[in-house]
From TrEMBL:
Catalytic activity: Zn(2+)(in) = Zn(2+)(out)
The protein's name in its UniProt record: Zinc transporter ZIP13
Lineage: Eukaryota, Metazoa, Chordata, Craniata, Vertebrata
TM spans (from-to): 68-86, 98-116, 128-147
The keyword Ion transport is annotated on this UniProt entry: yes
Chief location category: membrane
Gene that encodes it: Slc39a13
C-alpha cells in the first residue's frame, strides 16, 4: 500500500505544478491560459485513470481511491493560488518569468525521462513510428491551436 501513498504524493506535486502553469498562463493572456488548460486536461485524463488503477492495485477500494484522487486535485488549486499570490507588484511579467519556464522544464523532463527510453527500447519499428507520429500530431495540434 506504500506505493499507493507514494503515487498520491507524486500526483499532488504534479497537480501543484499544473496549477502553477495554468494560473501563470492566464496571467500572460486568456489565449495562453486556455491552451495550457487544454493541454493539461488532455494529459491528465489518461494520467488520472492510470493513477486510479495504481491505487486499486495498492489495495484501496474504489470509493477510497476516488476520494484520494480527488484530494490530490487540491495540489492544483494550491499551485494556482501560489502563482497568483506570487504575482509581483510590478506586473505579471515578473511572475511568469520564472513560473512558466519552471513548469515547462518539468514537463519536458518528465516526457524525456518517461517516453524516450520506452521509444528506444521498443523492438517493433512500426510501434515506434506510431508513437513518434502521435507525438508529432500532438505538437501540431497545439501549434495550430496557438495560431488561432
Amino acid at each position: 500500500q506504500i506505493s499507493g501513498y507514494l503515487n498520491l504524493l507524486a500526483n499532488t506535486i504534479d497537480n501543484f505544478t499544473h496549477g502553477l502553469a495554468v494560473a501563470a498562463s492566464f496571467l500572460v493572456s486568456r489565449k495562453v491560459g486556455f491552451l495550457t488548460t487544454m493541454a493539461i486536461l488532455l494529459h491528465e485524463i489518461p494520467h488520472e485513470v492510470g493513477d486510479f488503477a495504481i491505487l486499486l492495485r495498492a489495495g484501496f477500494d474504489r470509493w477510497s481511491a476516488a476520494k484520494m484522487q480527488l484530494s490530490t486535485a487540491l495540489g492544483g488549486i494550491l499551485g494556482a493560488c501560489f502563482a497568483i499570490c506570487a504575482q509581483s507588484p510590478k506586473g505579471a511579467g515578473e511572475t511568469v518569468a520564472w513560473i512558466l519556464p519552471f513548469t515547462s522544464g518539468g514537463f519536458l523532463y518528465i516526457a524525456l525521462v518517461n517516453v524516450v527510453p520506452d521509444l528506444l527500447e521498443e523492438k517493433n519499428p512500426w510501434n515506434s513510428l506510431q508513437q513518434i507520429l502521435l507525438l508529432c500530431t500532438g505538437i501540431t495540434v497545439m501549434v495550430l491551436l496557438s495560431l488561432t
